Sequence to fold (250 residues):
Amino acid sequence: MRIRVGHLYPDYLNIYADRGNIAVLTRRAALRGHELEVTSIGIGDELAPGAYDLLYVGGGQDREQALVAPDLAAKGRAIGEAVTGGAALLAVCGGYQLLGRGYRGRDGSWMPGAALFPHETVAGETRMIGDVLIECELETGVHTAVAGFENHAGRTLLDEDATPLGRVLAGFGNDGRSGFEGCRVARAIGTYLHGPLLPRNPALADWLLAQSLAHLTGGPSEPLPALDDELEARAHAVSAQRAHDRGGRR
Ligand code: GLN
Fold:
């Protein structure tokens, strides 16, 4: 199968090796006999809602975010339609912030967002930096520990009825207080975790691939054949240990 990926603003939102996430998806798809067709979607480009099985948005600093925010807000309806239509989506850090209703940056300016996720973000005085470990329930009853690195000044406040990606076991997460990390809407996931995220979290990478394939075929999502993930498991363990060493939730 040919999985169609729309990579939003790779020239602007690409810090913390976010491109590594695409590399992992490409490799893990290829090992199952599938191909990834990655299309860059830039400022002013059309985003046809049914054209992608997976949308990806990486992280960026306030300056880059301010440059793409108006365009992302303009694409909000198309992104919403894509997700309602069953497309998968991964948004990391700066991209995660801008897929909410908006972000108030350090200088007080309001950056409008795509309003896919029910949240708003406000920049704080201090940065929240370090390894982080969260517990997710990607499928009902299946608990997965997801490890990564966070580095953000933004505090993301979820609406009361929002579904977080997971609960913080160690680290700050969305706002350093709520105990929640990330957000989920249908097959869309937003998170502060990067580093990049997917090389050390193969279960999450495979979940995204399975959701993308389900969108492509129009069928339910099926678990993918297992791979030898020894190195990935070691990377995950190192990251999880670092988060534990940092102490419990702060
Ligand atoms: N500029 C945002 C913040 O500091 C996002 C940073 C990032 O993507 N790492 O909160």
